[in-house]
Design a protein that fits this description.
The complex is a heterodimer. By secondary structure, chain A is of the alpha/beta class. Chain A has 22 helices and ten strands. Chain A folds into three domains: about 120 residues, no CATH class; about 240 residues, 3-Layer(aba) Sandwich (Rossmann fold), CATH 3.40.50; about 50 residues, no CATH class. Helix content of chain A is about 50%, strand content about 10%. The model of chain A has no long low-confidence stretch (mean pLDDT about 95). Chain B is of the alpha/beta class. In chain B, about 50% of the residues lie in helices and about 15% in strands. Chain B is globular and about 50 Å long. Classes of the chains: A alpha/beta, B alpha/beta.
Chain lengths: ~450, ~250
């Protein structure tokens, strides 16, 4: 029988990698739980409030996006809109080419992964260096992030030491401090040589045009220290109404992502350098990227656009812990990715329609989500859509016969009683393709169909 | 979120669930005895079948709605509908309104949703039962079934269990994690599902409890099936069976 792709990947996953992903994720879940529980008496109320703020932001996105554009321009930034991933890549390279820029330093940004920016810049002859340590390791290995916050959750320090040795960053040494120091020395030169710095944005306030960036390594500050040009790639859904909303959202973001009350660096960027504020890049460009988001906004799964990319749902997800991020074949893994990736795929929805099935629907993702996204409901809606569009789903039993049986009480009662015959034969021999995978690792209890009904009847006679 | 004004009459309709109908008549009997102990008259609509969740989870919502329409007809009326399963209860009060969002008969399933109670939730938050009489000298690990997240069921079950004389509820790691069952998920993702289940078993048995207890037979069927195949069998009991046994040991 054909196999689900996530299942196949998980089954073949190296045991050491699986353990690393599990342990790292579980540690993240525990830290989040402890810090939220210690700092707030009712963290769930806060999550619901944050969910309302984000839902409001996307319901009125047209208004807030326009307002953000005006505010950013008032601050002296150039604002661009890109409909597709290609448009976004071209917008970036156009700005760079116009300025004669050849070297770029990048801070971590999921949307740049989504639009495959580095590949595009490479073909244009522009050097782009990832400056977040994890992302840099991904880049030199030609790998892909397997977690949205901890991109190298699937690697260990011995793998990294080998990569550094190969890249000429010193002899083999797997001491984490040495690895970090070597990366810092390497990066310093890159920062100084770069013509432009590219970042993402965690939030953009429509009211003030403030762009908010959170990092733990301070690399985004370095990206904006020497280069003359700052380009920020921002998914259109990142806009929030006002600066005051950050009080709720920032308090939840760090705690949900890494169990930190606040990330080590939280930057508020108010446009490019001016005479009264001489530091920073001379030129600032904000590129708002749609890339299917308008379609998602128009769909019945729009709640996924609330997401603030904390990764808490990945950490807590038992399927993610077993399968690791690469099993999801997309930039966004885990429960968030199982919803977002097939939607971002647009017309290619069917190619990723198996992802919403890779869930036991346990709901742990919703329970930890800082913006209270009803992820299990969205997974179910996408399963329904996959079914309607006849997306392949290996191992999913057809439900037509079940529905007939369960809507016909006479037939149902008959089946309950007659299935007792199952107790007389070895189940492993039965030609029931959907029963066999169950029986490989589990037993089934004895069939006692109809026993309860008889008992109820006999009591009423008395 | 469920309506806060669900009915609390003591004449109730029991939805036994298809798993109890097929395998676990002892759990359904325990549920009846527990409800009767607190003064309920239990009606069992004979034409009941299943809540339709298997088709719902598979994405075949038309098939699931067919079953749900039947279920809504069978459980017509105004009495509380009691379900000894957090999962099937959640299908009635959450899943059904979701799959009927765009259907004309949404009000019918919404009405049923507003009358549905998971057993422990009904006993504690519906009828106000605070303590359970009798004795049950044992150490148990209580698995809070996933579909009771965000409801009062888990707390309610623990409250009654902890009030039973001689019963000790032991803690275990990664308590928020799923048992790996997930209905048809266990069939289409057998490796992931089994790995989740084995990890769950490791945690649940950390403190060597006498029984693994839950309010959902689906989780327990999965866990005991895995444990038995792995030749490390565990003893499982539904929450209602503990209450029932405690009553029998009540002087």
């Amino acid at each position: 029988m054909a196999e689900q792709k996530v299942e196949l990947f998980a089954r073949r996953l190296d045991h050491g990698v699986q353990k690393a992903v599990h342990n790292n994720s579980a540690a993240g879940t525990e830290k989040r739980y402890n810090v939220l529980g210690t700092d707030y008496s009712a963290p769930d109320d806060l999550r619901r409030l944050a969910g309302q703020i984000r839902q409001h932001s996307i319901e009125y996105l047209d208004t807030y996006l326009e307002q953000a554009e005006q505010s950013l321009k008032r601050q002296g930034a150039h604002v661009h809109f890109a409909v597709t991933a290609d448009d976004a890549c071209r917008a970036v390279s156009d700005i760079l080419q116009k300025a004669g820029a050849k070297k770029v330093v990048k801070s971590k940004s999921m949307i740049s992964e989504e639009i495959h920016l580095n590949d595009h810049l490479g073909t244009m002859g522009i050097e782009s260096v990832e400056t977040d340590l994890g992302e840099y390791i991904i880049q030199i290995d030609g790998d892909h992030p397997s977690h949205i916050v901890k991109p190298i959750i699937h690697k260990n320090r011995r793998d990294i030491a080998k990569s550094f040795e190969r890249e000429g960053l010193g002899d083999y040494n797997d001491d984490p401090e040495t690895i970090t120091r070597r990366a810092r020395v390497f990066m310093r030169d890159k920062y100084l040589q770069a013509d432009a710095g590219i970042t993402g944005a965690n939030f953009v306030s429509a009211e003030s045009g403030r762009l908010v960036l959170v990092t733990n390594e301070g690399n985004s500050r370095f990206c904006l220290a020497a280069p003359k040009i700052h380009i920020a790639l921002v998914g259109i859904e990142k806009v929030i109404p006002s600066d005051a909303d950050l009080a709720v959202l920032l308090n939840l973001l760090g705690r949900s992502a890494t169990g930190q009350q606040l990330t080590v660096y939280t930057e508020f960027i108010n446009g490019p350098a001016r005479t009264d504020r001489p530091s920073g890049p001379q030129e600032m460009h904000v590129i708002f990227v749609d890339n299917q988001r308008s379609e998602i906004l128009a769909s019945d799964c729009r709640e996924i656009l609330r997401c603030i990319r904390c990764g808490a749902c990945l950490n807590v997800c038992p399927v993610y812990r077993q399968a690791s991020g690469h099993a999801y074949r997309s930039v966004y893994p885990g429960p968030l990715g199982a919803v977002l990736s097939p939607l971002l795929a647009g017309k290619k929805f069917k190619e990723l329609a198996d992802l919403p099935k890779a869930s036991s629907l346990c709901g742990a993702c919703n329970e930890v989500c800082p913006v209270d996204i009803p992820i299990p409901d969205l997974l179910l809606k996408l399963r329904n859509r996959g079914h309607q569009e006849h997306a392949p789903s290996p191992g999913t039993p057809p439900m037509g016969a079940f529905a007939k049986l369960a809507s016909s009480p006479m037939l149902w009662r008959f089946a309950m009683k007659s299935n007792k015959v199952m107790n007389l034969v070895p189940l492993e021999k039965l030609p029931l393709p959907y029963l066999q995978p169950w029986l490989k690792t589990r037993t089934l209890p004895t069939w006692r169909g109809g026993e309860f009904r008889s008992w109820m009847k006999s009591r009423h006679k008395k | 979120m469920q309506s806060t004004t669900r009915p609390t009459d003591r004449t109730v309709q029991l939805m036994a669930t298809c798993l109890c109908d097929a395998f676990f008549d002892d759990v359904a009997r325990a549920t009846v005895e527990v409800l009767e102990h607190v003064g309920c008259e239990v009606e069992f609509p004979e034409n009941q079948t299943c809540c339709g969740q298997p088709a719902f989870n598979c994405g075949d919502w038309p098939a699931s709605r067919e079953v749900m329409r039947h279920t809504a007809r069978v459980f017509d009326g105004s009495k509380p509908v009691i379900v000894p399963s957090g999962s099937c209860a959640a299908m009635l009060f959450h899943g059904a309104p979701l799959e009927f969002e765009k259907e004309k008969d949404l009000p019918t399933v919404q009405k049923l949703a507003n009358r549905t109670w998971e057993l422990a939730d009904f006993l504690v938050n519906g009828l106000g039962v605070e303590k359970w009489p009798g004795r049950f000298p044992a150490r148990i690990a209580f698995h809070r079934a996933c579909h009771t997240r965000g409801t009062g069921s888990g707390e309610a079950a623990l409250k009654l269990l902890e009030s039973i004389e001689g019963l000790e509820v032991v803690p275990f790691g990664e308590a928020e994690q799923c048992c790996g069952f997930g209905g048809t998920f266990s069939v289409s993702f057998p490796h992931v599902s089994s790995s989740m289940g084995c990890l769950k078993l490791e945690h649940l048995t950390e403190m060597n409890p006498d029984f693994i207890v839950s309010g959902d037979m689906s989780c327990l069927m999965h866990l005991s099936g895995l444990a038995e195949r792995g030749e490390k069998p565990v003893k499982t009991l539904h929450f209602a069976q503990i209450l029932q046994t405690a009553l029998h040991r009540h002087g």
